[in-house]
Amino acid sequence: MSDLSVSDNLIIEPTFTTPAIRFEPEKRTFSISGNSYPENSLKFYSPILQWLENFVLRHTPDAHPINVEVRMEYFNTSTAKVLLDLFRLFESLYEKGQPVIVRWIYNKEDTEMEDAGLDYQAAVKMSFELVPIDEEES
Prior knowledge:
About 35% of the residues lie in helices and about 30% in strands.
């Protein structure tokens, strides 16, 4: 995966224990959705973090916002740290002058996921919207 260029998309199909990853720089959309409790979080997320680090290093800020959408159903504690690492990478883009909008989408009945979103929102200095949805919409 290290030979990917910044213009290449990073698409990983979901499994029962890992989320769907759709990082599409040309469309300016980066999404993560589903469940995340891989047997080995480091093994699963290291290439994703490396890809995003490369993107951040090579990206030239412009006026068009980058949209980050996170729609998790469940994640474990090791994933919680990885999500913060991902948000920090997007935050570094924001600090370089790139508009970044994060949308944390969660089932409005899921107070734990809402609380997690609030924690991440408080931890970063960029636009971070919490978007409650009805179960039927998901």
